[in-house]
Amino acid sequence: MPKGLTFLRGMAVAAWTALPLAAVAAPHANTVVATVNGEDITIGHMIMARETLPQQYKQLPDDVLYNAILDQLVQQTALKQELHGEVPHDVQLSIDNERRALLAAKVIGTVMQGATSDEQLRAAYEEKYATGEGVDEFKAAHILVETKEAAEAIAADLQDGADFATLAKQKSTGPSGPSGGELGWFETGRMVPEFEAAVLELRPGEVSAPVQTQFGWHVILLHERRKTEAPEFEEVRGDIAEELRVKAVENRVSELTASAEIDKPEIKDLDPSVLKDRSLVGN
Q1: What's the rounded Cα separation, in Å, for the pair 80 and 76?
Q2: pLDDT in tens, 141-165
Q3: Which of 96, 72, 56 is CA-nearest to residue 7?
Q4: Dihedral angle sign, alpha carbons of residues 34, 47, 99, 95
Q5: Which helix (DSSP H) or strand (DSSP E) does residue 121 occupy?
Q6: What's the confidence (pLDDT) of residue 20?
Q7: Residue 68 CB neighbours (<10 A)
Q8: pLDDT attached to residue 25
Q9: What is the CA angle 44-46-48, rounded to 5?
Q10: By the 8 A CB rule, do 10 and 72 touch?
Q11: Distances (CA, A) of 105 to 100, 111, 241, 246, 278
């Protein structure tokens, strides 16, 4: 069954069977909106259920969505009570994983929130653009082929004086092939790491050795490189905030895992394909 709410027949008639909110002066997360065989459903349950919905469902009128969610939670509660409190092993494992992920995400959110104060953003901006210059930009072209052997053959042809653009038009499998392999100007961070690392090693006019990426094998020609002017703070505020959030999370994860007592016992004859064996955790 898909994650989140699955809307049953109640959705189709929800607009005509709307039930009013419980008569309380100030509804809160623990306000009970329904009871099924003694088990409470609260506004808090409904709020979190709404959070899991696809955006198109969230656009429904409030009264329709309220009653659809309430009907669904009532139905789910009645269904799960059929197990009389027993939690199947596979379900418990999923609950454990979901709980772990939700709590980890909560910590990540807290770490991110604490990493982007105005002072931190300003300090990161000043450090990054202290010279008054912006990022590195490169103007390059490449020839993309499927195998290392094909890339090596192209590199050899170029060393023998072949024209790069002509070879790109003839042999490149990438979308830039028809235009001679030209990629135009791009800045650091725009290309996959292996490609960018190769470009950083080149001087204008130089051609790289064959470089493998997830797309295939590349031979790269660097035309020019330059520095852009430093952008205004507000132009890059969002990018800097994202960089600080990512760095803060990476640092916190590294700190926690370094200080944690982690034991990974060796399991004799463990075949990684065991993860495909659904029968080990039940139906």
Answers
A1: 6
A2: 999 999 999 999 999 999 999 999 9
A3: 72
A4: positive
A5: helix 118-128
A6: 52
A7: 26
A8: 60
A9: 70
A10: yes
A11: 9, 10, 18, 13, 27
Q: How far is CA 134 from CA 113, 229, 281, in A?
A: 26, 5, 54
Q: Which helix (H) or strand (E) holds 42?
A: strand 39-42
Q: What is the DSSP letter of 209?
A: P
In this prediction, the residues of the chain whose per-residue pLDDT falls under 50 are 1-5, 7-19, 22, 24
Joined tokens for residue 115: 């990493």
Which residues have CB under 8 Å from 143's CB, separation 6+?
151, 154, 164, 167, 168, 171, 172, 174, 177, 181, 218, 219
Cα–Cα distance measured from residue 40 to residue 30, given in angstroms and rounded to the nearest whole number: 9
Q: Collect all residues with Cβ–Cβ distance below 8 Å to 191 and sequence separation of at least 6.
A: 199
Tokens representing 283 are 């139906």
Q: Is 113 exposed, middle or buried (0-12, 13-18, 19+ CB in 10 A)?
A: exposed
Strand runs labelled E in the chain: 32-36, 39-42, 133-145, 182-187, 211-213, 216-229
Is 119 strand, coil or helix? helix
Judge residue 152's burial from the number of C-beta atoms within 10 Å of its C-beta, 0-12 exposed, 13-18 middle, 19 or more buried: middle
Supply 103's token pair: 């709590």
CA–CA distance, 225 with 209 (Å, rounded to integer): 19
Per the CB < 8 A criterion, the answer to whether 143 and 163 are in contact is no
Amino acid letter, residue 170? Q
Cα separation, 77 vs 36, whole angstroms:
7
- Contact between 140 and 187 under an 8 Å Cβ cutoff? The reply is no
Instruction: State whether the Cα torsion 189-190-194-199 is positive or negative.
Output: negative
Distance from C-alpha of 283 to C-alpha of 274, rounded to nearest angstrom: 16
CA angle 136–141–143, rounded 5-degree value: 135
